[in-house]
Amino acid sequence: xxxxxxxxxxxxxxxxxxxxxxxxxxxxxxxxxxxxxxxxxxxxxxxxxxxxxxxxxxxxxxxxxxxxxxxxxxxxxxxxxxxxxxxxxxxxxxxxxxxxxxxxxxxxxxxxxxxxxxxxxxxxxxxxxxxxxxxxxxxxxxxxxxxxxxxxxxxxxxxxxxxxxxxxxxxxxxxxxxxxxxxxxxxxxxxxxxxxxxxxxxxxxxxxxxxxxxxxxxxxxxxxxxxxxxxxxxxxxxxxxxxxxxxxxxxxxxxxxxxxxxxxxxxxxxxxxxxxxxxxxxxxxxxxxxxxxxxxxxxxxxxxxxxxxxxxxxxxxxxxxxxxxxxxxxxxxxxxxxxxxxxxxxxxxxxxxxxxxxxxxxxxxxxxxxxxxxxxxx
Length: 378
Ligand SMILES: C=C(O[C@H]1C=CC=C(C(=O)O)[C@@H]1O)C(=O)O
Description:
This protein is of the alpha+beta class. The protein has helices at about 5-15, 100-120, 140-150, 205-220, 260-265, 275-285, 315-320, 360-375, and strands spanning about 20-25, 30-35, 40-45, 50-55, 65, 70-75, 95, 125-135, 155-160, 165-170, 175-180, 180-195, 225-230, 235-240, 240-250, 275, 300-310, 325-335, 335-340, 345-355. It has a single domain, classed as 4-Layer Sandwich (Anthranilate synthase). The strands form 2 sheets. Strands 1, 2, 6, 7, 8, 9, 10, 16, 19 and 20 form a 10-stranded antiparallel sheet that branches. Strands 3, 4, 5, 11, 12, 13, 14, 15, 17 and 18 form a 10-stranded antiparallel sheet that branches. The longest helix is centred in the first third of the chain and has 21 residues, at about 100-120. The structure holds the ligand C=C(O[C@H]1C=CC=C(C(=O)O)[C@@H]1O)C(=O)O. The ligand C=C(O[C@H]1C=CC=C(C(=O)O)[C@@H]1O)C(=O)O binds near residues 173 and 188.
């Protein structure tokens, strides 16, 4: 199958108004797609189903599932990936919102967040906004192709359901990866604009903001994991941005640590919500001037059975005896994403607020983050 034929499959599915998702893991070349064969809105009830899950920020709302059983699953192996050079802020899209008003509103929101931190309501809160852009290229498959070409190190997806909407994104953040009982995640936070080097100095504000995420994950999961490993914090590049990242891994230690339990412990992490979780979430739901929907939710493969052969080159009967089945869940946080509605793209961008945040710089940070999607909409 050629790449054009693979993309035509997605295009046909979209034209026929049927649900689908296409996604590529960070630094990988295989693009996988689930083409649902009916237009039912399937939901997960307890994350024990097998399929592709699309969950909102507010977990009390519907988590949509594209089930394995009702889907045609195709894979396409693309050519070797290479990161194209990215200039920051080259977008030439039409902003249909009033930037002055948007700036005032975001600054006022951040100031309110900082006040709540000083009052002791919470230590950190992630505050976000939505930006509307008129686009001339509305074909999601063409936009998806550009995303794939532009962000080889991100998790790049297009997701569509006729009863929910059309979302695309290129996220740098893993929520969790579980293979049988082997677990890994990351604490990703702190942002600066990439200027041709990853050898940069981080301020205390960003270091603290990221440490809050690491501490939250470790303290909430350490009783569930054996052989817990926490990496040194490193600088990671994501498009035109740099973030601080820590890898955390371990072995899920008991049958009671179901996937649902782990998801509920982790989501939403202080990388997208705040600390303490409930207080920050309440503030977000009450104060952000729009509804996050699936932004800062999570998406990805849920309980997918994959076979591992000891020797993949030998396809004889004897070798089949060595084939083992593993169950894999690979979930990503829905960041650097957008929703497309006719000729309008709705971009979602936010940033972590601590006591040391500067509201003007927080606004600038959301502008820098919005470039990730704007770049492919030109
Ligand atoms: C909430 C977002 O980013 C999160 C992930 C990395 C860095 C972040 C930050 O520096 O604030 C955020 O925690 C977003 O991109 O909308």
